[in-house]
Amino acid sequence: MELKKYKLGEILDVTRGASLSGEYYATEGDYIRLTCGNFDYQNNCFKENTSKDNLYYIGEFRSEFLMKKGDIITPLTEQAIGLLGSTAIIPESGKYIQSQDIAKIVCKEDLLDKDFAFYLISSTIVKQQLSAAAQQTKIRHTSPDKIKDCIVWIPKLTEQKCIGKLLRTLDSKIELNRAINQNLEAMAKQLYDYWFVQFDFPDENGRPYKSSGGKMVWNEKLKREIPEGWDSIPIGNYAPCKGGYAFKSSDFYKRRGVPVIKIGNIRDDYTLDMTDCQCIENFDNSQFLAKRFDLVIAMTGATIGKFAISQRDYWVNQRVGRFELGDTPLNRLGYLFNSLKQDYFREQIFQIASGCAQPNISSEQIDAILILKPKDSILSQFNNICRSLLKQQSENLLQIEELTKQRDELLPFLMNGQVSVNSDLSDD
Questions:
Q1: Hey, which CATH number is domain 231-373, 1.10.150.130, 3.90.220.20, 3.30.750.24, 1.10.10.10?
Q2: How confident is the model at residue 51 (pLDDT cuts 50, 70, 90)?
Q3: In the 8-state DSSP scheme, what is residue 370?
């Protein structure tokens, strides 16, 4: 494959967004201002920003800053390490306003394919140049001119289109699996809320319990009314939490052995990010092994209270807890997983940890937190329903992991011309 050298500015344009006045920020409206929070830089895709509640903009702005579906954006401010060079694609027209921290990428279509450009901007060669040229302030910045100054080598347009189509196909499947998983999770949450918050689980006649006049009684420990015959239970009586092992830094390897879950591997979306992890060899103690469908939780630091479902076998580090769900964890996982999502649980975690200089909680303190104890028949029904949902989510996550690995391994070879794409195959 023949590659030709360009400055990015020769093959694309980069425009900065509007300076939006804070006096027009609002909690509702017709238009949402884009921020760096719209970049899922770990997965290199667009995400809705849920970190703020004043993302709407009700002031005047020029129409050129209203984004269209398919527009490519990249951040000009590095609010998290690794953010510069990330790319995202606008999912919907007429909804998002390009703000001054966001750059829009516009390809010169006779030289650069749009799909290829998306991966080119986020490639290692561009990210390294942006990082080297970034202004060294407390928060690093880049600019449209610095982006346009980056040097790249690209193939001819027909080959770009083949490469872009292949990578986009992989990402589309990844995005589809994520969307399916979000729907599956929403289904379980909705059922949990219906049964265990509104208490409209099916009674002995199949009718919604509370709405049909089911008797409610006051529970002093939980400080609320619950269905008659239900109770509270310490988490430790349902699934004891066990702390991880204090591995020494000298025990770790980069790629050899079984990966170790640390608090930084636990993501906000209840999954584990093990792309950058350390491993342990020659260790054999099942007490500290998280198996598939085990639930782990961060017990200290800024990540305290975050939890995730393990999809493979991992060792558990000392500041991570593992809930013991037995030999068939799916029989109990659904109820515990959704119970831990409740505000009540997070409030208890933070209340316990707030008395420490460094936020910290022990496995014994987690075990003592109370959760609702439904009747066994209702609990069993719920876990049975969740079993199939969690299994499907797991299969999708494992497929996402494999597709991501394929894409990330292919990307540098495709971008530097070491691997080419057969145009006939790319049309399949």
A1: 3.90.220.20
A2: confident
A3: E
